[in-house]
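Hi V.,

You were right to ask for the full record rather than a summary. Here it is.
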Amino acid sequence: MAEANWYVVHTYSGYENKVKVDLEKTIENRGLQEQILEVSVPTQSVIEIRNNAEKVTERKMFPGYVLIRMIMNDETWYVVRNTRGVTGFVGPGSKPVPLAPEEMAKLGFGVPEGTVLREKKVLVDFEEGDTVTVVAGPWKDTVGTLVEINEKKKTVSMMVEMFGRETKVELDFTEVKKM
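Predicted structure:
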C-alpha cells in the first residue's frame, strides 16, 4: 500500500471550512477513509488587546488553503480536485507536491499532544510613537509616548516625566490604553 502524505489544496478565500466539511462528507459517502485520512484547516490562537481588554480568537494560519493527509491516486485526486470551492493542489502545473514531515512537524502535525511548538501571538492596538494613558498601577493616569513594545514579554516601555527629567518605565500591555 502506498504511503499517505500531506498535501496543500488552494481554495476560494473564506471557503476553507466549507471545503473541509464537504470533503469529509464525500470521503464518508464514498468509503475513502483508508485513503484520505485527515482534512485540516490549521488555526492559531491570537490574543488581541484593544481598549484594555484581552480577547483570545482563532485565526486561520493559511487563509485560502486546506491541508489534506492522503494516499495520492487518481480517485483521491479526483475527489479532492472536484470538491466545490477547491481551485487546485499546490505544486507545479497540475502535479501535487507532498509536504515534507519536517514542514508538518513545524506546524504541530505528527507531534505528541500537549507539545507546545509556538506561542500565542499577541495583537495590540498601539505601536511605537503612540501617545498612551496608563490605566492601572502606580503610574495610573500618566500620559506618555511608547518607545518600545516587547511582544514576547507582553510589555511596553514609555517615557514619563519624573523629578523634572524623562525616565523610561516598563508596563504590562493591559496597563496602557491608546489615546
